[in-house]
Design brief:
single chain, mainly beta, Immunoglobulin-like, eight-stranded mixed beta sheet, 1 helix, elongated
Length: about 130
């Protein structure tokens, strides 16, 4: 019986300092992007409408040329090439600041501007997250 008590105390003490209770990161945000023959647009586009954190861009290439969504700013990122009439995705961690969103360096399409606000709050107490 004393051996079981000692084993129980040993198990109860495991993991207390090894795994601190850290909060979850912010919930990912979805951003829509469209590439046309004349411009790149993103939504939402109001300055600060998107806070810093993980973002998933869903990109529709409605132009007649292949393109890619390219972000230049505090975080640089680019999607894979997207064929005309096709869609693509880009997942990236956005930091607070100003970004230029383009269809690639060889494109003559007008760029979009995107301003990312402060870091979004933790999703620690949000329910039903994937």
């Amino acid at each position: 019986m004393p051996a079981a008590l000692v084993a129980g105390l040993g198990v109860a003490a495991c993991g207390d300092d090894d795994f601190p209770n850290e909060g979850r990161p912010a919930s990912p945000v979805s951003v829509a992007a469209v590439i046309t023959d004349t411009e790149v647009s993103v939504s939402p586009r109001a300055p600060g409408a998107i806070g810093g954190g993980l973002a998933t861009f869903t990109i529709a290439n409605l132009s007649s040329e292949p393109g890619a969504l390219v972000l230049e700013g505090p975080t640089d990122a680019a999607s894979e090439e997207i064929l005309p009439g096709d869609t693509g995705r880009l997942k990236t961690e956005l930091l607070e600041g100003d970004y230029i969103v383009s269809a690639g360096e060889d494109s003559s399409v007008a760029d979009a501007e995107l301003t990312i606000g402060p870091q979004r709050p933790s999703a620690q107490n949000e329910l039903l997250l994937p």
